[in-house]
């Protein structure tokens, strides 16, 4: 089956916002095994939207629309879809009472506009919205489907995951099926290197293996389709196992929702370790990523940002001679920063980052993108040299990912 | 004139990447006074792309395509556009020598594939690519234009700004014109409040005034169109002045490229001030934003991340009694953090952030999203209370913007 994404909103046409809904829906549809050949953005204009809907119905089996279900005059996705399908709008009692409840719960006043959101095309399937006032809608026309979703991602995403994905799977002409996927997340290896090691697995058809490159990480999504979840899981399991075997310690998780910082914090907690950071060019961003993890306070107590040489000396006791002889961006300074942070904070694990993020400050000997890091784990120290590419923001982002990866690797080195 | 954006790439259809090109191009086209009614994404498929091109030529004056100009077999945007326009491809000597030079300069080996990138449709205008190997191309067909741009943003953006925007302006049927725009950037005021103060200006047609909401900021873009830049500037100037008058100190810049952290660092440099941060729930992100600014080392030396109570006491000397009596998230603690950071770092200006980012840790009295900040400027201290909405990431992002805004406000308070 083919699906087509249609995002409705003048703010998209004006470039006021980036179309993250399209990317998210596209990824979900691909995981569901649906082929998507077209994505369209169109404004809140009935005539143009109707044209796009008619074209879409000619060339695709399922149209998924997002946006334009709001309470204002501008919002006319529902009205236009109903018109294209030759349906009238009628008030849906259940939706109305849910909208009334939504406002009551929040102590807000419901306006007449909001009542409009309870109007649904005759014969449409109404999909409850647990996070907003506009219900989702599914219309059928000559064996094709038009699915209308609210635009705000915090409404669209849970509605799609809980209601629309199962619905789409139920349409499978080979009988109802489920999709099950797991993501093998790899840190510290490059994209091309990872891809070279999985060419055989990329040729599989069920489960499929698809790589997604992230900063400092590669995610391999393993997706299977089967009549029942148990069966789909059974197909995914051996491939995940094989990937774990091939990539060994570079795999930091096989769970979709776990991030690299989650994995590092989990590892610290597992071994009862506390952690501290000492950062120069990343200026607090490595600590900032650790603090993404709710409950990090059990392990992360203190961080140092030592941007100047003086701060490196004063806060974490880097020696004046070290700075003079080797410079602030050197393996020696990185090492003393990590050791000094351990001493000053009392943490079991520390990581230091010192480098040249650019655009200025580079030299032939120490070019922009050169970053040294050190990691201290219970008395042991490792120092690593990195040469990153890209602008200031990229160098810093890559450094943060590398710092987390280094920390993880060193803890595993000590604790196995 | 109407423009239509067509982004080519299977990775967009699969949701592997977010379509930031479309948003960027849409914003540029809007600023150029071009109306855009459709954006389409299509894969690297000749038949479907040809269909999209034909539909586009029927309904729009100008088609702007991005992507699919690479050296591989997959890349067929140029070939398909040439075919739709009934043109042959011929080797462009200038492009070939530029591609050869590109590889020579970088000490890389040029492959036969890359030679393909020097093929251009007969009669096409060739646009130099200063940051890659694929030249841009402009094709004319029956008074309509097809503009082909490379997909990588670091190639597309400079090419559009330097070459395509002036070309588009030269097409104006009322004679060549230029666009000039300035952005009045406002911090510390909400979007609805700002909009309420500019309803009269939003009704203007030349210049136009368009609001863009950012985290903790609202940007008002003032854009004029005229035969000459001087004239366009003359139209923009009084409106920018009027906006500055209305929003006073809340305007931190009227320059398009200046960020809030740039403005804060500039203000610090102007008054010869050094700065330090002390962060709890933001965990280094406020320092991280300051360190976005190249050359920040003149003013930013030291930052503290005091996530635990112990770190608050040890690093910046918050009193045990203060923490016990008022708690870590309190105006008193925020105040002592800012004062303590000033003492420990010797900085002239410090900002502290302590709050509950969630999802846990909230209470009836101190709910998730409650954040206290204090700012120290040369002996003076201000404390502020914020109640932010959203998840952990949103609360922290909003806190960082508010911390920069607070710092700026306090420095202005002291130094005028």
TrEMBL record, chains A, B:
Signal peptide: none
Ranges in a coiled coil: none
Domain MoaB/Mog: 4-171
SUPFAM superfamilies, per database record: CinA-like, Molybdenum cofactor biosynthesis proteins
Source domain of life: Bacteria
One Pfam family cited in the UniProt record for this chain: CinA_KH
InterPro entries: CinA, CinA-like_C, CinA_C, CinA_KH, Competence-induced_CinA, MoaB/Mog-like_dom_sf, MoaB/Mog_dom
Family: Belongs to the CinA family.
Record-given protein name: Putative competence-damage inducible protein
Organism: Candidatus Eisenbergiella pullistercoris
């Amino acid at each position: 089956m083919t699906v087509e994404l249609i995002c409705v909103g003048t703010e998209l046409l004006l470039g006021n916002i980036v179309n993250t809904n399209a990317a998210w829906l596209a990824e979900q549809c691909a995981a569901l095994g649906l082929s998507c050949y077209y994505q369209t953005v169109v404004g809140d204009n009935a005539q143009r939207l109707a044209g796009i809907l008619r074209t879409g119905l000619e060339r695709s089996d399922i149209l998924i629309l997002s946006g334009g279900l709001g309470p204002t005059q501008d919002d006319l996705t529902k009205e236009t879809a109903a018109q294209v399908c030759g349906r009238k709008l009628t008030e849906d009692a259940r939706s109305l009472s849910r909208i009334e409840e939504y406002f009551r719960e929040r102590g807000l006043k419901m306006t007449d506009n909001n009542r409009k959101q309870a109007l649904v095309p005759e014969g449409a399937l109404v999909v409850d919205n647990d996070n907003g006032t506009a219900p989702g809608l599914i219309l059928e026309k000559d064996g094709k489907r038009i699915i209308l979703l609210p635009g705000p991602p915090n409404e669209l995403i849970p509605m799609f995951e809980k209601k629309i994905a199962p619905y789409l799977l139920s349409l499978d002409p080979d009988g109802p099926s489920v999709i099950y996927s797991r993501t093998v997340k790899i840190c510290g290896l490059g994209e091309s290197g990872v891809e070279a090691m999985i060419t055989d697995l990329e040729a599989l058809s069920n489960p499929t293996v698809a790589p997604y490159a992230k900063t400092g990480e590669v995610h391999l999504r393993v997706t299977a389709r089967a009549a029942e979840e148990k069966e789909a899981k059974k197909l995914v399991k051996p491939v995940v196992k094989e990937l774990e075997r091939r990539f060994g310690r570079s795999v930091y998780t096989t769970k979709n929702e776990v991030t690299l910082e989650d994995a590092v914090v989990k590892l610290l907690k597992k071994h009862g370790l506390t952690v501290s950071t000492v950062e120069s060019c990343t200026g607090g961003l490595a600590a900032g990523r650790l603090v993404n993890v709710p409950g990090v306070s059990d392990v992360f107590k203190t961080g140092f940002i030592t941007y100047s040489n003086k701060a490196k000396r004063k806060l974490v006791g880097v020696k004046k001679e070290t700075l003079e002889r080797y410079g602030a961006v050197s393996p020696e300074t990185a090492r003393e920063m990590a050791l000094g942070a351990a001493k000053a904070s009392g943490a079991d694990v520390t990581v230091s980052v010192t480098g040249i993020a650019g655009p200025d400050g580079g030299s032939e000997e120490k070019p922009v993108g050169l970053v040294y890091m050190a990691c201290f784990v219970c008395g042991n120290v490792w120092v690593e040299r990195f040469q990153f590419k890209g602008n200031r923001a990229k160098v810093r982002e890559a450094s943060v990912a590398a710092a987390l990866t280094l920390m993880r690797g060193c803890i595993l080195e000590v604790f196995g």
